[in-house]
Model the fold of this input.
Amino acid sequence: EVPIVAGSAEVVFRTSGTTGGAGRRGEHHVASLELYRAAAKNNYRCHLFGGAAVLDVISLVPSPASVPDSSLATMAGFISREPEVARTTWAFHPGRGVDIDAFRDAAAAAVADRRPILLLSTAFALVQLLDGLGRERSRLPEGSRIMETGGFKGRAIEMDQAALYGRLERALGVPGSHIVNEYGMTEMLSQAYDCVAGEGRRTGERVHRFPPWVRTRALDPADLAALPPGRPGLLAHFDLANAASVCHLLTEDYGHTTEDGGVRLLGRAPGAELRGCSLVAESFLRALGRGAEAWLPAVSARVAPRARTP
Done:
């Protein structure tokens, strides 16, 4: 395997891979971190920061210092440096998982200061948080919002998104309208979001939207012919932000486009490789030798879209 790279890379992002090991991890050679920040900034500000003059960030995504080859951690670092952010707490540590005490302390400080919280997390780390809190109700300040990404890529542990959002509302007091799903991947510098915080519709009615320099097509799995809006197929993205790398990406994500340019995600194509940032959180659980039954109640399974490693 010979990597084809256009010039030198400022950073190399790597996918989480699977149980096949680090040797199978994909790489994205990025020429400029400033280009990544510019591609991500307006979109995350529009969807996550609306209506908040000042807020605290609690991240259940690892810090960029702890995983410098993670595109998601790098984006979390960008978010933490926005001018509205008064304080950032990194409450997830690779190898140890969610730091429940750090979350509690940061939430209590935000409540005392009457500042809303922006909680950044993978879906699986949110389940770890809820499990760690148990019956405890940690009501976050009014106006708090959650960015959730990653879905459930592991074979053993799956949870319906609506069920997860319901648990979050009961435990943290954050309504589903304030929970935003982010769709991204290591191989792309642009992201899509399914709502603006505070304006989210029910989970089954949401549509993801990329910035205007991204074009997405649904392709027929049989011959890769482009399908019209509403017809599901394999999603292919053309991202102009991927300067000096590969702009046109064919994924194993399944979904369809909409007439107004949105993307409705339906899951992973049958037989597709399990990937994504929630695998990092699940690997922590497996390291403890605990099965899915120790963490999740019986809920309906759902195949979640792929996302990048944290």
